[in-house]
From TrEMBL:
It comes from the Bacteria. This is Uncharacterized protein YeaO (DUF488 family). PANTHER family: CYTOPLASMIC PROTEIN, CYTOPLASMIC PROTEIN-RELATED. It holds the Pfam family DUF488-N3i.
Amino acid sequence: MAVQITCRRVYEETSPQDGKRVLVDRVWPRGMRKQDAHLDEWLRDVAPSSELRRWYGHEPSRFAEFRRRYLAELRDAGHREAARHLRDLAAHDDLTLLTATKDVDHSQAAVLAEWLTGRGRSKG
């Protein structure tokens, strides 16, 4: 049976199908108390760099370029260990990638989910 990887907003109610719940944002979600997040881990080092996050600004028209740049960042030394750890988690457990972003489909969580399942492999 293959593991399931899903993306959700951290503000949504937990679900028995969540598996391991991992926050993949660099900054803590606004207005969220740590005990209310029900996280297994907070992997801030797998999140996009602050520079990339600011450039993207959650503009859907920039998503393709954001995705390309973010996948390149995941190969960099600063992200490599956290990315490897996330891959290890995904190999053994169902995984819910959490983000505070309103548009989950155009977020780093969506890029990570594709990357973890092999659908987000970049060329080159």
